[in-house]
Structure formats: structure tokens, C-alpha cells
């Protein structure tokens, strides 16, 4: 029997999963369940062990617990794999969790207390942990946090200019997308050599979007803040915005906090500016001037924030694109890199159009790379490390 590690990423209505071989950390299969809470369905799996889930129906009524049990039953059917541990993506580790942690009752109690910091995500992450504990008692479990990678930021990059009592109560910049940045930090030395240990800006551009300034493979600044609403313009989120505008909506326009939240989190960004779609592909295919303006603003915001991170880093040795837009949109990468030409960024447009790994001109001062996002592998790696301890 080969040892395997299960990685779960549980959202409000979905569970993404991946199974890794413990020896090689090669993915054995990846897949997902969607529609939890309404009509649950198995979205399929890919990889050499995907057959484990063939031919067994997932009940439509599945909640998180039933979906997790269904997944674990699939793994139990294997006569080749022995599940050794499970790792979970947990959005918030708060001020204290700066590394992956083995789960016990005390850790769960601490993670429960962080729910108010990420009410839309944390409860589902924790529900998945409890579901595994129920369906497979005794299986070691490890929590890996989206915020942990940024705990290395210097204090000035973490605190806001608000009364220190509020800072002391944990109202600080946590930053997110940390597992994606961890993966880039893990693989970049093999791609970029020495530059990987220098001053690097990573652009994670998906539905959610943020930038991370890394030095020696560690985060020193990032664009997301206390919540994942800060920083770049995103698919539906506004990103950094004058807090006075929020007050205006509440105090002058009489909007309820929930209405303001809906506007800033779900009706802004690419969707709000274009009035058409939150999907970059739809906007790229549109002739509407508002679609153009939304994409132009998206690139402009990345350029502005990248300039700010360059100042925090004191220069730049490499630029990296990752996640849906970052990996696949040559047009958007090109627009961003044109805005950074002053810093020595110059793309080879043939390589860019082909989504090659290195897309900058050979002679350019700043190498530019495309790295496929993988938020599951760093979790599997962390689980293995915990197991060795
Ligand atoms: P998530 O943040 O939910 O993990 P992804 O990383 O998959 O999302 O990124 C989703 C975004 O990537 C969407 O805005 C989608 O339009 C965009 N995207 C995916 N493929 C392409 C493409 N070929 N060209 C432009 N944008 C793309």
C-alpha cells in the first residue's frame, strides 16, 4: 500500500480536493464537489486515481459532512492507497498561527474564535475538519492558513494608521492568498535561480486578486488587508477605496451596512465598472467601451500597487504572474507590463502569447515568469512535514 495525503479546500457551496502520494508529492487526483446546500454534484476528478470516484452517486442533498464522507468512502475503496493524513485550507490564522498546525481540540477552539474575521469562509473550512474527524476518527489533520505566509511582514507593513488600541485588538493587515504565494516561493528557485531569493513581486490574478512583495522567499508586504476586500480591483470586489466613500454611503445615502457590503464585495470590480461581467474572458471579447475601461482600470491598479511594492522592496529582481488571469491572459499581462516598462520590464510578446514560463525579453532587466497556481501542494507538503515531526 502507498501512503496518501488528502487535501481539502472547503468553500460555502463547494469542496475542492486533491490526493497526493506521500512519497513523491505527485498529485494522484484532483477534483471537486459543487452545489452543496442546493443540488450537490460531483464535478469530476482528474489523475491516475480518479477512478476511485467512478460509478458511485453523490446524494444530491449532501451537506459538507455528507460530501466529505462520500469522498473518504471513495478513498477507502482503494486497495492500493492508505490515507495517512488530511490537510485543510483554512482562510484565517489570526495573529498567532504563522505556520501550519496539527489539529486538536485546543487548536479548533482557537480557530472557532477567528470566525468573525472571515465569516464567509472560516466556518466552512472548520466544518470540513469536523466532518473528517467524524468520518475517519483518529486521522491526523493539519490546518494551513491563507494568512500565515504574511506573518513575516515587518510591523509597519502590518499596522494601519488607526488608534493603537484597535491595532492591539488584531485590526491589522493580515493579507491572503498565502498558500498560492507559498507555492510560488517553493518552485521559483527552480525556475528563476538566484533571482528567486531577491526582490520579487508575485501577481495572483484570479477572481480574487492580490500582489505579494517577497524578499528571500518571504512576504514583506501585500495588497490585501484586514479582509480580502483591500488592494487590487477584482472580479466583483472594489479593492482599496477611500474609507470616506463608505461612510458617505452609510451616513449621507442612508444605506444599511449589508447593502454597502453587497456593493463593495459583489457589485464592484470588473463587474461593476463594465456593467457586463466579472469574467475577464467575457470583457476581453467585448467591444463595449465600459468593458475596455474595466480592463484598463484593472491593469492600472496592478501597476500602481506594484510600484508601491517596489518601493517597499527597494527595487525589483523578478515579476511573477499566477492564477486564472495571471496564467492565461497574455493581453492583460501585456497591459500590466507596459505600465511597468519604466522599471525595466519588457515582454517577449511571442513567449507571452504562448504562456511560456519565462515571458520577458532575454535582454530585459527584470525577468518575468508565469507560474501555474497550486494551493494544494503546499498543504500536502506541510502535512508531510508535520507527520515527520
Ligand atoms: P479563483 O480566484 O476563483 O481561483 P481563477 O484563479 O480560476 O479563480 O481565476 C478566474 C479568473 O481567471 C476569471 O476572471 C477568468 O475570467 C480568468 N481567466 C481564466 N482563463 C482566462 C483566459 N484564458 N483569459 C483571460 N482570463 C481568464
From TrEMBL:
EC number: 2.7.2.1
Residues noted as binding Mg(2+) in the record, renumbered to the chain: 9, 375
Localization, UniProt: Cytoplasm
UniProt entry tagged with the keyword ATP-binding: yes
Catalytic center residues: 146
Binding-site residues for ATP, renumbered to this chain: 16, 204-208, 279-281
Cofactor note text: Mg(2+). Can also accept Mn(2+).
Keywords tagged on the record: ATP-binding, Cytoplasm, Kinase, Magnesium, Metal-binding, Nucleotide-binding, Transferase
Any single GO BP term: acetyl-CoA biosynthetic process
Pfam families assigned: Acetate_kinase
Signal peptide residue numbers: none
Statement: the UniProt record of this protein carries the keyword ATP-binding: yes
Needed cofactors: Mg(2+); Mn(2+)
Site label Transition state stabilizer, positions: 177, 237
GO cellular component, one term: cytosol
Binding site for substrate: 89
Pathway per the UniProt entry: Metabolic intermediate biosynthesis; acetyl-CoA biosynthesis; acetyl-CoA from acetate: step 1/2
A molecular function (GO) term: magnesium ion binding
Catalytic activity line of the entry: acetate + ATP = acetyl phosphate + ADP
Annotated function: Catalyzes the formation of acetyl phosphate from acetate and ATP. Can also catalyze the reverse reaction.
Subunit structure: Homodimer.
Family, similarity comment: Belongs to the acetokinase family.
Protein name: Acetate kinase
Amino acid at each position: 500500500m502507498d501512503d496518501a495525503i488528502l487535501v481539502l479546500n472547503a468553500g460555502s457551496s463547494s469542496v475542492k480536493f486533491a490526493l497526493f502520494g506521500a512519497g513523491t508529492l505527485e498529485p494522484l487526483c484532483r477534483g471537486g464537489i459543487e452545489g452543496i446546500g442546493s443540488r450537490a454534484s460531483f464535478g469530476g476528478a482528474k489523475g491516475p486515481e480518479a477512478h476511485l470516484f467512478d460509478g458511485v452517486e453523490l446524494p444530491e442533498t449532501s451537506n459538507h459532512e455528507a460530501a466529505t464522507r462520500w469522498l473518504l468512502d471513495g478513498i477507502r475503496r482503494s486497495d492500493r492507497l492508505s490515507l495517512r493524513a488530511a490537510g485543510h485550507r483554512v482562510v484565517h490564522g489570526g495573529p498567532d498561527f504563522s505556520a501550519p498546525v496539527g489539529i486538536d481540540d485546543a487548536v479548533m477552539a482557537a480557530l472557532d474564535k477567528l470566525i468573525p474575521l472571515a465569516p464567509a469562509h472560516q466556518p466552512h473550512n472548520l466544518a470540513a475538519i469536523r466532518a473528517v474527524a467524524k468520518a475517519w476518527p483518529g486521522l491526523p489533520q493539519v490546518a494551513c492558513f491563507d494568512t500565515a505566509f504574511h506573518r513575516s511582514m515587518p510591523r509597519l507593513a502590518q499596522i494601519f494608521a488607526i488608534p493603537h488600541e484597535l491595532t492591539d485588538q488584531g485590526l491589522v493587515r493580515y493579507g491572503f492568498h498565502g498558500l498560492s504565494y507559498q507555492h510560488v516561493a517553493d518552485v521559483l528557485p527552480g525556475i528563476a535561480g538566484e533571482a528567486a531569493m531577491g526582490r520579487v513581486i508575485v501577481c495572483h490574478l484570479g477572481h480574487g486578486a492580490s500582489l505579494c512583495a517577497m524578499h528571500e522567499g518571504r512576504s514583506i508586504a501585500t495588497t490585501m488587508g484586514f479582509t480580502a476586500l483591500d488592494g487590487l480591483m477584482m472580479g466583483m470586489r472594489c479593492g482599496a477605496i477611500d474609507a470616506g466613500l463608505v461612510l458617505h454611503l452609510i451616513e449621507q445615502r442612508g444605506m444599511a451596512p449589508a447593502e454597502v457590503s453587497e456593493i463593495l464585495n459583489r457589485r464592484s470590480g470588473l463587474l461593476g465598472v463594465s456593467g457586463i461581467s466579472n469574467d475577464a474572458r467575457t470583457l476581453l471579447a467585448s467591444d463595449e467601451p465600459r468593458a475596455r475601461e474595466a480592463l484598463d482600470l484593472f491593469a492600472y491598479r496592478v501597476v500602481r500597487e506594484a510600484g508601491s511594492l517596489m518601493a517597499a522592496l527597494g527595487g525589483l529582481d523578478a515579476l511573477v504572474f499566477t492564477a486564472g488571469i495571471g496564467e492565461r491572459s497574455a493581453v492583460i499581462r501585456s497591459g500590466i507590463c507596459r505600465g511597468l516598462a519604466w522599471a525595466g520590464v519588457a515582454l517577449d510578446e511571442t513567449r507571452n502569447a504562448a504562456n511560456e514560463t519565462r515571458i520577458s525579453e532575454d535582454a530585459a532587466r527584470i525577468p518575468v515568469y508565469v507560474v501555474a497556481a497550486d494551493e494544494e501542494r503546499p498543504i500536502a507538503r506541510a502535512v508531510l512535514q508535520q507527520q515527520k515531526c
